[in-house]
Design a protein that fits this description.
heterodimer, A: 228 residues, alpha+beta, Alpha-Beta Plaits, 4-stranded antiparallel sheet, 54% helix, 15% strand
């Protein structure tokens, strides 16, 4: 029974079940590793469970495709025609989502063509890179985490003492805007701060409020300057 | 001594700075070193005898 099953494929070379299973299982493992990486590193609002599932299935499908093709040009053309019928029309919202799909496809191709070492090395490097990018918040520009606005009523040279106080709480202090009014005396100032300790933000605001010459003091906690 | 000495920076803030600023440079440097090593090992010109 098993023998007839193994010989059921009408091909020139006999199909080795073990190598077929190895290819498919390798594709499955690569797909699952990619899907786990996506689940653990994804940030943003566009999370989809079906997309994660497809990350596991795509390598399997591509692996199967490569096995079916088996260097046969006629089958390859037939398959291209079939793909043209299926048409994937859904738009991926995140560019990184496309990278995951491509990772699944290439790993599936590697597993399907028996390049197991390439598949293993590829999945390790790809997943490692994706984890590293997520952990290091790569691409985010963390330049400040607080915006401090206040009105300064005293002469500008006397501002240095207040700035010394602000700098004692921040690693980086940048004056974002300075505005004076025609009708009223004083200057509106806005500073961007990279705080030494986020949890002492209220303490800083309170100290600035108590400082002689300040009024209308407001503090705003700023998020990272990046897209979700 | 300044009128307002800097407040102590907690470890989690320091680690965040390292993670965001230093880690990419470190990873890049390691990758470059590894590429140079592999280049020497794999792509060194073969010598012809005879």
């Amino acid at each position: 029974m098993l023998e007839s099953f193994l010989q059921a494929d009408q091909t020139d070379e006999p199909v080795r079940l073990a190598s077929v299973l190895l290819g498919l299982l390798m594709a499955f493992l690569c797909g699952q590793a990619i899907a786990w990486t996506y689940m653990l590193t994804h940030s943003g609002l566009s999370y989809s469970r079906t997309y994660v599932n497809s990350l596991v299935v795509i390598p399997l499908l591509v692996s199967m495709v490569m096995m079916v093709l088996s260097n046969n040009l006629i089958t390859a053309f037939g398959l291209m025609a079939l793909f043209a019928i299926v048409r994937f029309r859904n738009i991926l919202r995140d560019t990184l989502d496309t990278c995951y799909i491509l990772a699944g496809i290439t790993l599936g191709m590697a597993a399907g063509t028996g390049r197991y070492s390439t598949a293993i090395a590829g999945v390790i490097i790809i997943c490692g890179t994706l984890f590293y990018l997520s952990y290091a918040s790569f691409g985010s520009r963390h330049r400040y985490d607080m915006i401090l606005n206040f009105h300064w009523q005293r002469p500008m040279p006397e501002l240095d003492r207040l700035l010394a106080l602000i700098r004692s709480y921040s690693l980086r202090t940048v004056c974002a805007s300075q505005r004076s009014h025609e009708q009223e005396s004083g200057t509106d100032l806005s500073y961007r701060l990279l705080l030494r300790d986020n949890e002492r933000m209220d303490e800083l605001i309170q100290k600035v409020r108590n400082f002689e010459g300040t009024s209308r003091v407001t503090g705003l906690s700023a998020m990272e300057e990046s897209e979700l | 001594m300044s009128e307002y000495p800097p407040i102590p920076t907690p470890w989690r803030t320091r680690w965040r700075q390292i993670r965001i600023q230093l880690l990419p440079i470190l990873v890049f440097a390691i990758a470059v070193a590894f590429v140079i090593y592999l280049w020497d090992q794999e792509l060194s010109p073969s010598t012809m005898s005879g």
